[in-house]
Design a protein that fits this description.
It is a single chain. This protein has 226 residues and is α+β, with helices and mostly antiparallel strands. The strands form 3 sheets. Strands 5-13-1-2-10-8-9-7-6 form a 9-stranded antiparallel beta sheet, with helices on one face. A two-stranded antiparallel ribbon has the order 3-4. Strands 11-12 form a two-stranded antiparallel ribbon. The longest helix is centred in the N-terminal third of the chain and has 16 residues. The N and C termini lie far apart (84 Å).
Length: 226
């Protein structure tokens, strides 16, 4: 092998060894982890909640369908089942100072019967042990949740564990939730207050970050015993 060829090979190997590899691109600042999110746009600021679609799929599917207008609900004026976004242009009709804020009723009274009930989903790892929980409101009896929901402010409410399905967690805007919970209002017989000046929920939008999660495998039918 000639000295010229050997020199060229050595030089090429050295050049390759010294070429730095391009590092993987860092995620943008403030990027959210993959998952499903609900954005609440209110008259007092914005709130973003990550939805627990794997842990409480019934509640999440119900909420997303009502927010997007793909799940039918009963119109209070006509009694007909309709498909349109339920939560846009509603109010927070009941609040507990530094406790929670409740929404999801287009009549603004808390008495709307929306024609839907869903099964409870209580999990041991989902408790009211931190502020910012998004949960299904109900009538106090099992499997009576439907269209209404609430966001918590209190850091711990152990008496609510296994009584309300938790299906999301505030990841941005908890200060807005707390501010809404402290607006002046008139006392309600069921507890809490109704804001004197309505706090408006102008829109709820749903955002998917990252790919759709894989579908759960279909369950095999169990043959009947003869």
């Amino acid at each position: 092998m000639s000295r010229l060829l050997l020199s060229m090979i050595v030089t090429g190997v050295a050049a390759l060894a010294q070429t730095p590899q391009t590092p993987p691109a860092a995620p943008p600042a403030g990027a959210r982890p993959d998952g499903l999110y609900a954005h609440f746009k209110t008259s007092m600021g914005d709130v973003t909640v990550q939805l627990f679609e794997k842990d409480t799929p019934i509640a999440v599917h119900n909420f997303v369908g009502l927010a997007k207008g793909t799940r039918p609900w009963k119109d209070a004026k006509t009694g007909a089942m309709v498909k349109r976004p339920l939560y846009n242009n509603t109010t927070f009709h009941r609040i507990m100072p530094n406790g929670m804020i409740q929404g999801g009723d287009p009549t603004g009274t808390g008495a709307h019967e929306c024609g839907i009930t869903i099964h409870d989903e209580f999990l041991p790892n989902l408790k009211f042990d931190q502020p910012g929980r998004l949960a299904v409101a109900n009538t106090g009896t099992p499997n009576s949740g439907g269209c209404q929901w609430f966001l918590t402010v209190a850091s711990r409410i152990p008496s609510w564990d296994k009584n309300y399905t938790i299906f999301g967690q505030v990841v941005d805007g908890q200060d807005v939730v707390k501010a809404i919970s402290n607006v002046p209002g008139n006392k309600l017989p069921e507890g809490g207050v109704r804001p004197t000046t309505p706090v408006k929920l102008t829109a709820v939008t749903i955002e998917r970050v990252g790919p759709e999660p894989p579908a759960a495998p279909a369950k095999q039918a169990v043959p009947a015993k003869k």
